[in-house]
Design a protein that fits this description.
By secondary structure, the chain is of the alpha+beta class. It is built from 5 helices and 12 strands. The strands form 4 sheets. The chain has a 5-stranded antiparallel β-sheet with strand order 7-10-11-4-12. Strands 1-3-2 form a 3-stranded antiparallel β-sheet, covered by helices on one side. Strand 10 and strand 11 form a beta hairpin. The longest helix has 12 residues. The protein is globular.
Length: 186
C-alpha cells in the first residue's frame, strides 16, 4: 500500500496509524521519510511484509531544495543554524553542477548526527539531543543521479536518485562543504 505521507508525522507514526486502521500488528514500511518530508511511503501488510527486503533495496527518487550558505545542526531546515556564509553569491552554476556530479557514484557518507543510526545501542538523535558529541562512522551509499533542476539565489532545486541508506540531507550538507559555503536541505 502506498501512503502519501504529509509533512509532520514520522514514518513510524504513519505505520502506527495504519496498524490501528487495519487492525493488524503485521505491518511495516519500506524506507523512511524524515518528519518534515512529504512523499510516498510504501507499507507492507500481513504476509506481504516478507517482501520487505526486495523493496528496501530499490532506488529512491527525491525532489527537493537545498539552501546554500547556511549549515544547521540537523542538516535540514528543522535544525538550529550553526554557520552563515555568503560565498554562494559568487558561485557559478557550472561549479555547482560540477560539485553535484562529484557527489554521484559509490560514496562513503557520514550519516547526520540527528539520525536513527545507533551508537552503542542508542539512536544517535537521542545522544545529539542530550548535547553529546556524536561521531558516526561513514556508510557506503550509492548516488545514481544528483542534478540541479533550477536555482534562485541560494535556493537550489534538485533531483536525486539514490540507493538504500542514503541520507539526502547529508548529501545537501556535503554539497555545501564541497562548495565551501555550507548548506542544508530546505
Amino acid at each position: 500500500m502506498l501512503v502519501d505521507k504529509p509533512p509532520g508525522p514520522t514514518s513510524h507514526d504513519v505505520v502506527a496509524a495504519a496498524r490501528r486502521a487495519l487492525g493488524t500488528q503485521r505491518l511495516g514500511h519500506a524506507g523512511t521519510l524524515d518528519p518534515f518530508a512529504s512523499g510516498l511511503l510504501p507499507l507492507l501488510v500481513g504476509r506481504a511484509t516478507r517482501l520487505m527486503p526486495f523493496l528496501t533495496d530499490l532506488r529512491k527518487h527525491y525532489l527537493g531544495v537545498i539552501r546554500l550558505g547556511l549549515r544547521t545542526t540537523t542538516d535540514d531546515a528543522t535544525g538550529t543554524p550553526v554557520g552563515d556564509d555568503d560565498a554562494w553569491r559568487h558561485l557559478s552554476d557550472e561549479r555547482l553542477r560540477g560539485a553535484m556530479q562529484a557527489l554521484t557514484g559509490t560514496l562513503d557518507q557520514v550519516p547526520p548526527a540527528f539520525s536513527a543510526k545507533k551508537l552503542g545501542g542508542t539512536p544517535a538523535h537521542r545522544r545529539a539531543r542530550r548535547g553529546e558529541a556524536v561521531a558516526l562512522p561513514p556508510v557506503r551509499v550509492v548516488v545514481f543521479r544528483f542534478v540541479c533542476t533550477g536555482r534562485d539565489g541560494a535556493e537550489v532545486a534538485f533531483e536525486a536518485e539514490v540507493g538504500s541508506g542514503t541520507y539526502v540531507r547529508a548529501l545537501a550538507r556535503d554539497l555545501g562543504d564541497a562548495l565551501g559555503c555550507g548548506a542544508h536541505l530546505a
